[in-house]
Amino acid sequence: MARQFAVIGLGRFGYHVAQTLTQHRCEVMAIDNDEEKIQSVADLVTHAVQLDATDEKALRAIGVQDVDAAIVSIGENIEASILIVMTLKEMGVREIIAKAVTPIHGKILRNLGVSRVVFPEREVAIRLANGLVAPSILEYLDISPDYSIVEIPATERLVGKPLTEGRFQSQYGATVIAIRRKVPYITEAGESEFSEEMRISPSPDEAIEEGDIFVLLGPKKRLEQLQTS
Ligand code: ATP
């Protein structure tokens, strides 16, 4: 069965969350008290409902208590964001992810027991700046104040050699948690295409192939120095 989500608050952030979840074939209940916002997503999501999300009865009537996760995406009106999170908690919603706009807003949401607080602007800015400082890093994800996951492409020098030649552990204290590899195949029309294979926990002897992308987990400070050569 498709996973079910409620997206509450359809500003830019909420809109894109609802759109992307729908593209991943999830069932999405998009909720906002502004009729125009509801109309803008009506053709996109499974259900678009205009209601005041601080109203528990109204949320129950559409079954929000049964969703796998609710995303509360309200920044401007911090009071509404807090009240809605409290209501969802009282209703027993399994997982609540909430957007915060200030550190205090984030702290309150955490204290209310949400599973995850996101600061969209801060997170995008950090990823952008990290990418600019270390251009060989394709993806960057902070998983704690000290650790991050990065993706870097294999360099020519490493092709055909075992994974240990990358010296990620000895030089950067990082573990290769996966390799993303392009695998060629022939389509029904006889054309050659590539599909992507994820090799999770690869063996140290794994031979590196051209186009491989390493997914590394390690200490942030040392990974930031990582430049493939
Ligand atoms: P972004 O920066 O992502 O565009 P934002 O953080 O500025 O958005 P807000 O303007 O705070 O977003 O509002 C998000 C949406 O939440 C708005 O569309 C607003 O109508 C809706 N909203 C606010 N309060 C409630 C409520 N009590 N019930 C339902 N929807 C609400």
- Kindly name the structural category: alpha/beta
Query: What ligands can be seen in this structure?
Result: adenosine-5'-triphosphate
Number of domains: 2
Number of H/I helices: 8
For CATH, the homologous superfamily of the largest domain is named as: NAD(P)-binding Rossmann-like Domain
Q: Can you offer a commentary on this structure?
A:
The chain is α/β, with parallel strands linked by helices and about 230 residues long. It folds into two domains: about 5-120, 3-Layer(aba) Sandwich (Rossmann fold); about 125-225, 2-Layer Sandwich (Alpha-Beta Plaits). It is built from eight helices and eleven strands. The protein has helices spanning about 10-25, 35-40, 55-60, 80-90, 105-110, 120-135, 170, 220-225, and strands spanning about 5-10, 25-30, 45-50, 70, 95-100, 115-120, 140, 145-155, 175-185, 190-200, 215-220. The strands form two sheets. A six-stranded parallel β-sheet has the order 3-2-1-4-5-6, with helices on both faces. Helix 4 (about 80-90) links the parallel strand 4 (about 70) and strand 5 (about 95-100). The longest helix is centred in the middle third of the chain and has 14 residues, at about 80-90. The relative contact order is 0.11. The mean pLDDT is about 90. The site of adenosine-5'-triphosphate has 18 residues, from helix 1 and strand 2.
